[in-house]
User: Which sequence fits this backbone?
């Protein structure tokens, strides 16, 4: 049974269930012979089994069900009415089907290719009913097959009893090949059984008058009790093991369960919060336990709806194989994380986009073997599918080691097709240009193939993924390969969300749409500007269109004070980036999505509702709809951006992006591209090597330089942690410890002077304060004198900072 | 002689009734989440044991000024084809058994928004109970836009 495919397993479980239902229906039908409804139900069941068995090449099963179906069709359509004779014939047919199913379960086949004469009595009985010629021969056959309907039901499910004639008859026939080979000759039971077997596989069966097989069939079960009994028992167990290892559960029930768990999660959140305030140790312990159990319960319930992504990956090898051979390419398909699970409904939604990406990768990504050889690559390309969990999402990556995307070519095509204007293009960075492939009406295929490149595709992929609350992006290196990354929520019901406040209310934004959060100090230098009336914010030299949530929701008078401190949530949807201005950012948490009724559909700003930790209802914002609002003034913003760029270029060429750190009273600027990461280490993690300080960081020993020491500044009191700026170049890292990270600015650094201390390149006025510009290379060398020897040195200057 | 049970309630001193069979429950609640941009008749959303319920302000439906949500408000939660909806009312009355004989179609003199929302009137001792057409009373779409 190991080799039995999933499909056969499912077919068996389903058919056994259906047959049980069928027994009940047929008995009910005797009470109510004219019921069209019952007949239709029976017809459908048999029709399904017939269809599937034909598909799975169970020819004997198909034959039996086929005649049964013919009879049922006539009954259903009223061409013929139920008689005891037809009931008997149908029950006989069903028992025969059951027997064949058992045979399939035991042997993996229904004995097709062998002889069908054991099916003849059943088929003839049914055919006789159809023809209306109640052949005297058929009558006893049917009677034998099933004495009374009720009894048959019982006997079939109770193995070992000798009167399940129909089933035994069929299974005896079904077991025929094996019995013939092993048991028939040497064993004692051969004598009585031989008659049956003889009849069963004897070629003369057709020639013999109908009585013969019937006569044979009749004594057979009685005689076969001994050998059949135990075998039947194992058959029964095998069947039970298949049927019992899985049960079918109504999806509605699962949804209800999921909803209840959602409630429990919320209640748990509330309770845990209350316990935190109560300061009672035993309550705290109970709370922790509840916390744990709830999380586990939530996980388990979610699992009931989960399926491994392998379900949709399973057919990709074939797709890749067929495609690659069609193109004369050689492609190896690697899969990682195939056991990663996703909600069933999401899995369905991801199937087509994923298939499209795979097709696209084989078609456009991976080069022909000769080209690859010419480029010094393995002629066999590799396509890697990778699935893993990350931050409450499932990430699915499709990576090829093919030609990669050419930003120049993409830009060219995008211009050609009118997807973007030259002005827009001029403002785009590499990543944005790559993202152009997701725009509607874009396709870079040199020629249209039957696989992809018909001008549809990537935009559809994006739309489909975004519809389920996911995201898709692409990273590519020309000549090396491309990675398409799908970010998919774990379930539709529970999402990771950012809670914000605007006016007196809280609103929820799906986390997947959130890129970054920016705090705007109402009093400080960074203010919201207006490009021809459209609000914008300069985010690292780019104008970010803004949407004021309070104004969008008509919560506040637009002319209200502009000097409030606000947060800008930089959001991404439908290929647009915009900033949503809100009053406060509260937290991120998992929320249960509740659909909103149709009465709010026209409003269009809400994607749903949810319950917050305190039990209050909060509205989930529809980011895509907000994005469309942000787009209204986009042409003005583009013009303003062009102007901004022109002025920037006119003054100093580029904009500096600087990290401002505080050291004592001094403000020190570090170019942002000399910052790989910002970390904060507890003081006790700083260890000493010789007279240097080091810290263990990502399996490395990282030299730490305190900038205060280098600059000879008076360092104030040490805190519990030390903020450090980590710079990594070709695997070698140094850490520059500062006292405080103050800010990140992007600005044209004007009023620069060479007034500066040792270790500084000069000073400038940034944010109205004099800020020293750190000589980073020197600081690095002070931290790690061999840094340059290990790393090929690149000239570093502040002019590069704008890159 | 057929009779039906009605759950009664008051809005602006007028007695209304809906068939008991469609009433899911009656409760007082005080935390409503406003829905900006929604039709004015939507008083807000609230959490009924995990179910998000929209509360329809009957005062607005009747052409009266909207309710202020300082204190708790009474909800009569009724089942409609699509969802459970709450009707915000002033005061809950009792459940009364009324025979169809006491029913009369809406008086001809009745007009304004009220006329659209009722099926008819029942004559009670000393006062009239208007039978509310729940489908219309809970319909917040069209007409009563956001401003």
Assistant:
């Amino acid at each position: 049974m190991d080799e039995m495919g999933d499909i056969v397993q499912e077919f068996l479980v389903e058919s056994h269930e259906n047959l049980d239902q069928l027994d009940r229906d047929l008995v009910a039908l005797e009470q109510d012979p004219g019921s069209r409804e019952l007949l239709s139900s029976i017809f459908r069941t048999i029709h399904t089994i017939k269809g599937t068995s034909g598909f799975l090449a169970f020819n004997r099963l198909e034959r039996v069900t086929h005649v049964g179906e013919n009879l049922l069709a006539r009954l259903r359509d009223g061409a013929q009415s139920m008689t005891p004779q037809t009931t008997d014939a149908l029950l006989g047919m069903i028992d025969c089907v059951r027997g064949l199913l058992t045979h399939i379960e035991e042997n993996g086949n229904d004995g097709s290719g062998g002889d069908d004469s054991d099916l003849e009595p059943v088929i003839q009985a049914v055919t006789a009913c159809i023809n209306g010629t109640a052949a005297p021969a058929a009558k006893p056959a049917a009677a034998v097959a099933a004495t009374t309907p009720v009894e048959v039901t019982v006997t079939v499910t109770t193995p070992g009893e000798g009167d399940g004639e129909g089933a035994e008859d069929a299974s005896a026939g079904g077991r025929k090949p094996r019995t013939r080979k092993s048991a028939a000759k040497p064993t004692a039971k051969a004598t009585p059984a031989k008659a049956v077997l003889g009849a069963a596989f004897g070629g003369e069966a057709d020639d013999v008058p109908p009585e013969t097989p019937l006569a044979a069939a009749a004594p057979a079960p009685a005689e076969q009790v001994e050998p059949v009994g135990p075998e039947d028992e194992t058959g029964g167990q095998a069947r039970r093991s298949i049927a019992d290892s899985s049960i079918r559960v109504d999806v509605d029930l699962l949804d209800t369960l999921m909803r209840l768990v959602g409630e429990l999660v919320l209640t748990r959140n509330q309770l845990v919060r209350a316990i935190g305030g109560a300061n009672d140790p035993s309550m705290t312990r109970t709370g922790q336990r509840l916390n744990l159990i709830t999380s586990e319960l939530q996980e388990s319930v979610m699992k009931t709806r989960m399926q491994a992504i392998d379900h949709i990956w399973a057919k990709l090898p074939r797709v890749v194989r067929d495609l690659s051979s069609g193109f004369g390419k050689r492609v190896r398909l690697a899969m990682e994380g195939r056991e990663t699970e996703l909600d069933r409904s999401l899995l369905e939604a991801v199937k087509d986009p994923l298939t499209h990406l795979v097709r696209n990768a084989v078609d456009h990504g991976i080069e022909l073997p000769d080209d690859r050889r010419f480029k010094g690559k393995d002629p066999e390309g590799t396509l890697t599918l990778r699935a893993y969990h990350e931050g409450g999402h499932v990430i699915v990556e499709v990576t090829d080691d093919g030609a990669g995307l050419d930003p120049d070519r993409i830009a060219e095509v995008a211009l050609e097709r009118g997807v973007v204007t030259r002005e827009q293009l001029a403002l785009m960075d590499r990543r944005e240009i790559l993202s152009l492939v997701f725009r509607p009406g874009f396709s870079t295929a040199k020629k249209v193939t039957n696989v992809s490149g018909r001008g549809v595709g990537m935009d559809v992929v994006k739309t489909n993924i975004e519809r389920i609350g996911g995201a898709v992006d692409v990273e590519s290196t020309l000549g090396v390969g491309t990675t398409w990354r799908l970010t998919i929520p774990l379930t539709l019901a529970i999402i990771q969300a950012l809670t914000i406040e605007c006016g007196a209310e809280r609103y929820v934004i799906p986390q997947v749409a959130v890129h970054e959060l920016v705090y705007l100090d109402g009093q400080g230098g960074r203010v919201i500007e207006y490009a021809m009336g459209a609000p914008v914010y300069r985010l690292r030299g780019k104008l970010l269109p803004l949407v004021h949530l309070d104004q969008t929701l008509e919560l506040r008078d637009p002319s209200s004070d502009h000097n409030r401190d606000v947060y800008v949530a930089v959001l991404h949807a439908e290929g647009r980036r915009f900033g949503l201005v809100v009053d406060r950012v509260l937290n991120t948490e998992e929320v249960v999505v509740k659909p909103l009724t149709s009465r709010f559909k026209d409003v269009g700003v809400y994607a749903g509702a949810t319950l917050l930790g305190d039990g209050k209802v909060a509205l989930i914002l529809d980011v895509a709809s907000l994005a469309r609002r942000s787009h209204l003034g986009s042409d003005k913003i583009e013009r303003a951006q062009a102007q901004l760029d022109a002025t920037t270029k006119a003054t100093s060429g580029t904009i500096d992006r600087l990290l401002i750190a505080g050291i004592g009273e001094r403000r020190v600027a570090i170019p942002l591209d000399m910052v790989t990461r910002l970390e904060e280490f507890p003081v006790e993690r700083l260890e000493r090597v010789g007279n240097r300080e080091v810290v263990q960081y990502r399996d490395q020993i990282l030299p730490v330089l305190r900038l205060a020491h280098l600059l000879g500044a008076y360092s104030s009191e040490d805190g519990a942690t030390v903020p450090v700026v980590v710079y990594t170049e070709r695997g070698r890292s140094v850490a520059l410890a500062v006292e405080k990270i103050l800010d990140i600015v992007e600005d044209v650094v004007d009023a620069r002077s060479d007034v500066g201390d040792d270790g500084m390149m000069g000073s400038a006025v940034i944010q109205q304060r004099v800020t020293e510009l750190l000589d980073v290379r020197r600081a690095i060398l002070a931290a790690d004198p061999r840094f340059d020897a290990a790393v090929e040195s690149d000239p570093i200057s502040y002019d590069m900072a704008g890159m | 002689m057929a009779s039906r049970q009605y759950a009664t309630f008051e809005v602006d001193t007028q007695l209304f009734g809906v068939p008991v069979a469609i009433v899911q429950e009656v409760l007082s609640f005080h935390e409503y989440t406003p829905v900006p941009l929604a039709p004015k008749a939507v008083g807000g959303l609230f959490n009924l044991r995990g179910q998000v319920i929209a509360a329809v302000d009957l005062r607005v439906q009747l052409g009266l000024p909207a309710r202020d949500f300082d204190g708790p408000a009474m909800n009569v939660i009724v089942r409609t084809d699509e969802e459970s909806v709450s009707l915000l009312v002033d005061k809950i009355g009792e459940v009364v058994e009324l025979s169809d004989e006491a029913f009369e179609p809406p008086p001809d003199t009745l007009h304004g928004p009220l006329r659209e929302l009722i099926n008819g009137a029942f004559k009670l001792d000393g006062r009239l109970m208007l039978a509310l057409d729940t489908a219309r009373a809970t319909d917040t779409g069209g007409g009563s836009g956001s401003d």
